[in-house]
Amino acid sequence: MKRSLFFVVVIALLAGVTLLTAEQKDLMEKKTRHAENIFRALALGDLKLVSSEAKALDEITVEAGFDDRPKKYAGYGREFLKSVRSLKKQADLGNLAGSYYEFTRMTGYCFSCHEHIRDDG
Ligand code: HEC
After folding, report:
1. Nearest CA, atom 19, ligand 1
2. In a domain, 18, yes or no
3. Distance, CA 30 to ligand 1 centroid (Å)?
């Protein structure tokens, strides 16, 4: 009886971990799609689309709650979010050069956060 209870707990924990990873993957999948859309919209000079895609990216990042994560990780999340908001601002101002710049900064945070996660194993 005790033994089967132990297995139930282990399976529940494993299911929880898998679910979390799947959720994170799904989120990153969405992030990648929005980032691609922004890239394409910038190439076309469609700043309205850049603005709405940046807004979507902002919202899903807030949902992810990076602030609950370890300090360094949350730091990258915050910087990422700041750059997404600056990008939206530049797009709303109709500033194409400023939007190019902020987009480049934003993608830099995608990479630095991933690199940091990999370093921590
Ligand atoms: C604050 C940290 C952070 C930022 C910023 C961030 N990511 Fe991620 N990313 C993660 C984490 C955590 C994972 C999951 C890593 C793992 O479990 O191996 C991940 C995984 C991914 C994956 C792999 C998903 C899969 O199916 O395995 C992709 C693609 C990805 N991110 C794209 C992006 C893009 C594009 C951006 C920027 C627009 C971005 N990420 C910004 C933390 C971040």
Report:
1. 28
2. no
3. 10
**116 Cα nearest atom in ligand 1:** 2
Question: Which pair of structure tokens corresponds to residue 44?
Answer: 């076309």
Taking the centre of ligand 1 as the mean of its atom positions, its distance from the CA of residue 115, in whole angstroms, is 10
Mean pLDDT across 30-40:
95
Q: How far is CA 54 from the centre of its chain?
A: 11
The CA distance from 100 to 47, in Å, is: 10
Q: Is the pTM here over 0.85, yes or no?
A: no
d(CA 60, CA 72) in angstroms, rounded, equals 20
Within-domain flag for 10: no
Return mean pLDDT, the chain: 84
Residue 1 belongs to some domain of the structure: no
Tally of structural domains, the chain = 1
